[in-house]
Design brief:
It is a single chain. By secondary structure, the protein is mainly β. The strands form two sheets. It has a four-stranded antiparallel beta sheet, with no helix packed on it. β5 and β6 form a beta hairpin. The chain starts with a strand and ends with a strand. The relative contact order is 0.35.
């Protein structure tokens, strides 16, 4: 629905997973950087609803897994229209 995008992903199989980071941008692929960070769900979550998405605008998302040492996985990309 307008203004709401539901993101779901498979849980990381890594045993030292700490949390996920979700980045968003309405102007193309989001950079994995602090100013694009939308939310950091705990490792137990595999779903997020973005209630902040602008109406009538496509939003691009990147989801990464972060382990206990701070290592970041390659981003999984998604587009909400």
């Amino acid at each position: 629905a307008d203004g709401r995008f539901r993101l779901t992903w498979r849980a990381s199989p890594e045993t030292d997973l700490r949390y996920y980071n979700i980045y968003a941008s309405s102007t193309g692929k989001p950079a994995v950087e602090q100013k694009r960070l939308l939310v950091s769900p705990p490792k137990s979550e595999t779903c997020y609803v973005d209630w902040t998405a602008p109406l009538g605008t496509a939003v691009n998302y990147a989801i990464v897994a972060v382990d206990r040492q701070g290592n970041v996985s390659a981003p999984a990309l998604a587009e909400g229209k």
